[in-house]
Amino acid sequence: MRPLAYMESLGWMGPDVWYAHGIHFNDDELRRLAEAGTGVAHCPISNMKLSSGVCRVPELLALGAPVGLAVDGSASNDGSNLLEELRAAYLLHRLRSSEKAPSGYDLLKIATRGSARVLGREDIGCLEPGKAGDLFLIRRDRLELVGADLDVRSMLGTVGFKGPVDYTVVNGKVVVREGRLTGIDEEQAVREAQTCCQAYLNR
């Protein structure tokens, strides 16, 4: 019995279920996932680091299956940077699927609307009345983006962005302002975290 068939036998299929990675599904299983509305959280950097394989994102999208973007855990990603994940996904699928790969804008939609759909959330994923005021802002007037910001919908996938965003708003509250967290003292948090790490390594 293949893993998906086993999960089906336990009732783990349907729109309230999603799988991390989703690398080893065959054609029939991809169709069954789409028909059941079962999602996949795509974690390309983890998959590349561990040499696990490549999720068949173009096929899942063509079938209408829910697909979101994720970073996986720190043990197999290290950076936990969703913007880096977005560009890595774009490049990985361009390499593997050429013209059938999702565009930079497709990847942005996977990371936002797609991830909300995978989680079964209707209150997040896009900016419109009645939804949570979750967004981030990046200034375009920065040296590294000169000439690279002509297609802002695709830019995060095709060009990428490194470093902290300028602003992040969660449910209408500013949590990052001018690249810095608003709710904590970052310097103190760094010192405390370094002390914890050193204590752990010295055990």
Helices and strands, with pairings:
Blueprint lengths: L2 H7 L8 E3 L6 H10 L2 E4 L1 H6 L7 H7 L3 E3 L12 H16 L6 H15 L16 E3 L14 H7 L8 E4 L2 E5 L2 E2 L4 H16 L2
Parallel strand pairs: 1-2, 2-3
Antiparallel strand pairs: 4-5, 5-6, 6-7
Helix pairs in contact: 5-6, 6-7
Q: Classify the beta-strand content into a percent band.
A: 5-15%
Shape: globular
Task: Give the second-level CATH assignment, the architecture of the largest domain.
Answer: Alpha-Beta Barrel
Task: Tell me the span between the first and last alpha carbons.
Answer: 44 Å
Assign the CATH topology of the largest domain. TIM Barrel
List keywords for this structure.
203 residues; single chain; TIM Barrel; alpha/beta
Account of the 3D structure:
The protein has 203 residues and is an alpha/beta fold. It has two domains: 1-126, TIM Barrel, CATH 3.20.20; 133-203, Roll (Urease, subunit C, domain 1). Helices cover 41% and strands 12% of the residues. It starts with a helix and ends with a helix.
Quickly describe the structure:
The chain contains eight helices and seven strands, in the order αβαβααβααβαβββα. The protein has 203 residues and is α/β, with parallel strands linked by helices. The protein is globular, with a radius of gyration of 19 Å.
